[in-house]
Design brief:
Order of helices and strands of chain A: HHHHHHHHH
Structural class of chain A: mainly alpha
Shape of chain A: elongated
Oligomer: homodimer
Radius of gyration of chain A: 19 Å
Number of helices of chain A: 9
Strand content of chain A: under 5%
Chain lengths: 184, 184
Amino acid sequence: MRADARRNRARVLEAAEVVLARDGLDASMREIAALAGVGVGTIYRQFPTKEALYAAIVADRQERLAEMAAELAGAADAGAAFFEFFDRIVAYSTVKKILVDALASAGIDAKAGAPDIRGAIGALLERAQRAGAVRADVGMTELLALLSAACLAAQHHNWSDDLRARALAVLFDGLRRATPATGA
Amino acid sequence: MRADARRNRARVLEAAEVVLARDGLDASMREIAALAGVGVGTIYRQFPTKEALYAAIVADRQERLAEMAAELAGAADAGAAFFEFFDRIVAYSTVKKILVDALASAGIDAKAGAPDIRGAIGALLERAQRAGAVRADVGMTELLALLSAACLAAQHHNWSDDLRARALAVLFDGLRRATPATGA
DNA sequence: CTAGAATCGGAATGACTGTTCCGCTTGGAT
DNA sequence: ATCCAAGCGGAACAGTCATTCCGATTCTAG
């Protein structure tokens, strides 16, 4: 690979991340090319399609998520590990919008699969459920929906650490077990 | 107004709501027209622009939501009323955010004349807490944070009715009480 | 320095989009 | 039954988009 090609690849990725964060997934290739200071053809040499470009960015973010999960995978307290992972993702998402998009493609959008992330979260969930720390009737779909919900709100409203703690406390209580039937 | 025109207007509104909920902002007028079983020209006779069509749906939805809030304000079961209204708002938001964004980008203020949803849900919360259906240590701040989270996720991922029901079931259990000291 | 291959920019392509327009159809008052 | 304006469908227009393509440029091996 020629030196200028490698340099342009990096510039394109950097520009794409900026434009993606600002304009969402409707960002146009022309705009990314303009910000990177290259022609659109240059982008297509490295990334055959728009989805491929986004996938390259998302894959990087997902890798970092997986590392975070792996750290907690062998923790002694399965319940605490699960809830801490949840909390750390939400806290991090306040800073990184891209992470939210990564979660979207990993969990809810069944289109682009990310088995490593799903697997990592799934393992934490299953361990926590076996330990009795999380109710058994919660699946990956519901979990990712709620995790994504917290991330989106935290990012959108700039949740303070305090608000995050109180909001997640309520959510975590719901995740622990179904409310026993006690009227009302 | 001729009878067939009125009938087509209703069919267009119904179809537009379905398509917008499914495809988001990228929904095309052709597709709405196809689902409604009319030509695109028929839509433009009633709604001069795409934004006008969105505005009509927003107005229609807000009216229905305001009616429901008034209805639930005096319901016998304060807890059920609270949770039902919460659910309705989340369901409604899957459509509303899309529309509000579209209207905002067009410079139209969609919030003018909107019902005071914040005040409505505040009243419902207080009543539900007095009835013991919602834990007492949840304030409007936490409630709105969680409500916003659910709405944002529902918008962002186009939650199906089924997913919304299951995700909110967990959240509602968390809202009912702190983790029971005595398990079931 | 030179050749020639790798890489470039950006015009061209084709498939969309919202919107306009017009000849044909049809409701409903007479 | 007749009439005609209100209403209709969908082709046509102008713009966008992602993607392809190719002549011009630039890097680098020899």
